Amino acid sequence: MKKYIMALDQGTTSSRCILFRKDGSIASMVQREFPQIFPKEGWVEHDPMTIWSTEIAACTEALLKIGGSWDEIYCLGITNQRETTVVWDRKTGIPVYNAIVWQCRRTADYCKSLSEEGYADLIKNKTGLLIDPYFSATKIAWILDNVEGARERAERGELCFGTIDSWLIWNLTGGKVHATDYSNASRTMIFNIKTLEWDKELLDLFKIPESMLPEVKPSSHIFGYTAKSVFGAEIPIGGVAGDQQAALFGQCRFEVGELKNTYGTGAFMLMNTGEVPHITDGGLITTIAWGLDGKITYALEGSVFVCGAAIQWLRDGMKLIESAQDSEYYANKVPDSGGVLVVPAFSGLGAPWWDPYARGVIIGITRATTKYHIIRATLESMAYQTADVISLMEKVTGIKISELAVDGGAAQNNLLLSFQSDILGIPVERPECVETTALGAAYLAGLASGVYSSLEDIRRNRKTDRLFTPERDAAWREEKISKWKKAVARSLQWSE
Ligand code: ADP
Predict the structure, then answer these.
(1) Where are the domains of the chain?
(2) Preceding omega of 277 cis (within 30 degrees of 0)
(3) DSSP bridge partners of 299
(4) Nearest residue to 407 via CA among 395, 416, 396, 419
(5) What's the pLDDT at 445?
(6) CATH code reported for the domain at 4-244
(7) How confident is the model at residue 85 (pLDDT cuts 50, 70, 90)?
(8) Is the pLDDT of residue 496 over 80?
(9) What value does the mean pLDDT take over residues 56-78?
(10) Choice from 306, 311, 379, 382 to test ligand 1 binding pocket (greatest atom count within 8 A of CB)
């Protein structure tokens, strides 16, 4: 009797496994942290073997914990930290170098020279991305240029490149399948998101041999089966998507104009734009949300650098709170921020301001200002920054957003979500299951293997934990937003 869908959630700091029941409820969850490797300032690596071993350990433990058996698993889905790059030997499966993590800045100079040589428009038009060390292309090039013999081996067809999903698929299938899905491919900066092919011109630019690349498949698709040597059972791998895209799917944002925001350390907003890739400026990225039923769904992605991190700053830097949860308790001690605004531009501002020289500002302080006002204003800054990105998305797509679905650690904060709803003037909905990333991978896998018959079938699983509706009028909103913009203006170009 099949009972569970197994979701592998391979993140930046931990490998997790969640077993979901068909109704989307969680039967078991295990998390294994693994070491971050910092060889130099600004460099970040992971050991690919540790990623693999912690991930299968998490899977095995998740099943053991509930006394389950492998025969009870319908299928398996993978979601992963995006862009992180692994290159390994096709014969032995041994990586030629550590995984270069998305955060790693080692290729910053290379990216700068690409921008100076005028490649920004070409790259944006083909891949939807900004030239940045985040994305895989320059990381692959770095490995080929810096690991002894790597380029020759790659040219002889002996090496494979993959993002973490590919690395896991390869290992799960005992080296039989070298594949990725559209959502992950769209983060490499060598995948053409319009023609849906690895782009020859970009491969030439980055000097990456095509033989290294995985086959690109729909996100909901049977990629292969786990080797008996891995789990003792041949389980279909039915769903693969990068973490943010998987969260959009897990939030059931299947329709054009549907949007989710994840309030984590930073904030990640993805808006479903359907079959249209809106290529745009102003710091938004165009990405593939998923490939499903022979169709590609695109998304616009915007991020806020400092979101929950501002709460960490209140706790660790300012020592105004003891824990992140306290922020709500203290903020509730005052009816509003008393005219105080905090712009947490600690390392510049992203969309729509896009100013690396901006720095943080606390403004509007009077003799009556207390720590409660500052805490409240810091929480409110998370909502303002989210609203800025959403209004940019509305502007470039011409789509009016009617509701925001939320998840991430700080989405537990009711005061934040209630203010978010007031500032946007639309409902904000927090689902019961906040493990939306893993859930998205499980849903994609469940669709491919027949556990679910349709998107409607999946949507029926969705339960609302709480709906926050706006309690303020447009005049209040306009005044608040104009004050916020004034505060942001004070923060811009500060460290230039
Ligand atoms: P990540 O995946 O980026 O590590 P999480 O989704 O786990 O982040 O969220 C953690 C972040 O959310 C932290 O920055 C923390 O300060 C913030 N956070 C957690 N709980 C709350 C809360 N109740 N109110 C406000 N912020 C919170």
Answers:
(1) 4-244
(2) no
(3) 272, 287
(4) 416
(5) 98
(6) 3.30.420.40
(7) very high
(8) no
(9) 96
(10) 311
